[in-house]
Design goal:
heterodimer; A: 174 residues; alpha/beta; GMP Synthetase, Chain A, domain 3; 2 domains; four-stranded mixed sheet; three-stranded mixed sheet; 24% helix; elongated; B: 279 residues; mainly alpha; Ferritin; 11 helices; 69% helix; disordered N terminus
């Protein structure tokens, strides 16, 4: 591809915003905040991606999906780079992405509540008096309880609503 | 599959090679110590990740099965980062996969604690807590490493390990301060595992070289924080700290218990039987 024929980066970003996350297909890779950079280096398009969890099995599928999407748009020279730092945080999930999660039945993350490994307050949590309020994505009730801080994928915790009784996933903060 | 004789011969060769390498490491280029240290970080994650994954499909309740599988997944992911960097620093073209699947027991650098058998659910959780408490402190300190690659991996891993520690501490407290049966099992698990905890914070030449280079913290500071966390959680769990002072060691230098061989036989079988196989 000649330099003159390089698609504008805004267009490339729009293409990437149409690539769904393989595990939670209602949100895109750009909603998830894992596309850290897109740039042209001469005639090569370089896309920098950060992993969500270090062991997330979706990582290799995400890279394949990015490559397939861009090749389908005629990008021939493409390089994917991994960037670890700063580490991915759920704070980077877009406002639009959060609404899509909620509509899909996954409670979006409550910013600033990531585990920090400091065990103070553990007794309060065990007693069920956590001040973290997760609204049920189905009925909106805030009468919910944590079943497990681990869920169906590394990024989710399991909750249940004590009003409508539905179990649901919470996209936990990291 | 290789015959038993082949395996034993190969083992003996590898053990000799490891011995030579250990001797060579005494007058050590800093890179050798660095690679060794990176393998310790990676092998702790790999061996514990494998052990925890053995629970998949066997846990007492579904939520715990998922939690254990997720924990194992995080640890295997961290392994890729640590062993990937070890291969890069070593500069001999070995990938994280090469290091995980093609080294033999004498070249593994994990502490003995993480290779201990799973036992019952309580013993698995107690092992996890004793390791998580150390891992968390280590990763906190490593974020200030003079090597930016180490600091970046530590920052990534610390976010995941914070969840591991909160969960394992919660469960140690619930089961310790639980029924007569659960409390007895947790105390027994603690007594059995305690002699394997000292190795994590007992420095050798590699640890000292890393601390002097500012790559890793002085293990004494990690131990002080570990002591506090463990004492606090075990007190809430109504468990008694064992009083014995004997501590096993050797894992960090490649002298392992028989348990590691069984893990490797399972984990490495495919790459040994079908070298280079992919799926």
């Amino acid at each position: 591809m000649t330099t003159a024929a390089r698609p504008d980066l805004a267009i490339v970003r729009r293409w990437l915003s149409q690539v769904p996350d393989p595990e939670i297909p209602v949100i895109s890779l750009t909603d998830l905040g894992i596309i850290r950079d897109v740039e042209w280096q001469d005639d090569t398009l370089v896309v920098t991606v950060t992993p969500t969890y270090s062991g997330c099995p979706a990582t290799s599928v995400i890279n394949l999906d990015i490559e397939a999407a861009l090749r389908a748009r005629g990008i021939e020279k493409l390089r994917l780079e991994r960037r670890l730092s700063p580490p991915w945080t759920t704070d980077w999930i877009s406002a639009e992405g959060r609404e899509k999660l909620r509509a899909y039945g996954i409670a979006p993350p409550v910013d600033g509540t990531a585990a920090d490994g400091r065990l103070a307050g553990r007794v309060a949590r065990l007693a069920g008096t956590s001040n973290l309020v997760i609204a049920c994505p189905r009925c909106g009730s805030t009468k919910t309880e944590k079943v497990s801080q681990f869920g169906s994928t590394p990024c989710k915790a399991s909750y249940r609503c004590t009003d409508c009784l539905e179990p649901f996933d919470y996209f936990k903060c990291i | 599959m290789p015959s038993l004789t082949d395996v034993m011969t190969a083992d003996a060769d590898l053990a000799r090679a490891a011995g030579i390498r250990t001797m060579a490491a005494k007058g050590a280029a800093p890179e050798d110590a660095f690679v060794d240290w990176l393998c310790r970080m990676g092998d702790n994650c790999l061996v514990l990740g494998h052990r925890v994954s053995e629970w998949c499909g066997h846990s007492p309740v579904l939520e715990e099965d998922i939690a254990l599988a997720n924990t194992a997944l995080d640890l295997i992911g961290q392994t890729q980062l640590w062993l990937g960097l070890a291969g890069e620093v070593e500069g001999k073209g070995r990938s994280a996969d090469n290091l995980a699947y093609l080294r033999d027991a004498a070249q593994f650098r994990n502490v003995l604690l993480v290779e201990r058998p799973n036992g019952d659910f309580g013993q698995t959780l107690m092992r996890q807590f004793l390791f998580d408490a150390w891992h968390m402190e280590m990763l906190r300190a490593l974020q200030k490493s003079t090597d930016t690659r180490v600091a970046e991996i530590a920052a990534k891993a610390a976010k995941e390990v914070a969840y591991h520690l909160e969960r394992s501490a919660d469960l140690v407290i619930r089961l310790g301060d639980g029924t007569e049966e659960s409390r007895a099992r947790m105390q027994k698990a603690l007594n059995v595992l305690w002699p394997y905890t000292g190795e994590m914070s007992a420095p050798d030449a590699v640890d000292t070289a890393m601390a002097e280079a500012g790559i890793a913290p002085d293990l004494a500071t990690v131990k002080a924080a570990w002591d506090r966390t463990v004492a606090e959680v075990l007190a809430e769990a109504t468990l008694s700290l064992p009083t014995g002072t004997f501590q096993h060691k050797g894992g960090k230098q490649g002298r392992h218990t028989e348990a590691l061989g069984f893990i490797l036989a399972d984990m490495q079988f495919l790459q040994r039987a079908y070298p280079g196989g992919t799926w």
